[in-house]
Write a structure and sequence with these properties.
Number of helices: 5
Largest sheet: none
Distance between the termini: 59 Å
Helix content: 55-70%
Strand content: under 5%
Shape: elongated
């Protein structure tokens, strides 16, 4: 795995429970490990269009392929949010209040 993961989390949806419950425990473990590996190195997997190595069974691969578009969409949304926040942060924050201004205000 990467030394430094920029994004610290990803979303698992309740809707994904139905296909996961139909997998054996071994296949579900492969799927979970595949999801974790894919999300930790998403840019590498997306650029090469590869499957994570823990996915061995056809059922785990098929289930992963159902989830992959949502993972990619969530990643794109995160990139957009991150870039927006970085742009806003580079503008600087709200100017600090001048202490002289706060002393002159009358309290009701």
């Amino acid at each position: 795995m990467k030394e430094s993961i920029e994004r610290q989390s990803f979303v698992l949806y309740y809707d994904w429970g139905y296909p996961i419950w139909h997998l054996s425990d071994e296949e579900a473990g492969q799927l979970f490990k595949g999801l974790m590996l894919y999300e930790s190195q998403i840019e590498t997997y997306r650029s090469k269009n590869e499957m994570p190595s823990p996915l061995k069974s056809s059922a785990a691969i098929a289930t992963f392929n159902v989830f992959k578009p949502t993972l990619d969409k969530d990643y794109e949304k995160w990139i957009k949010t991150r870039d927006t926040k970085a742009a806003n942060g580079s503008k600087g924050g709200r100017p600090r209040k001048n202490s002289a201004d706060t002393d002159t205000q009358k309290k009701p």
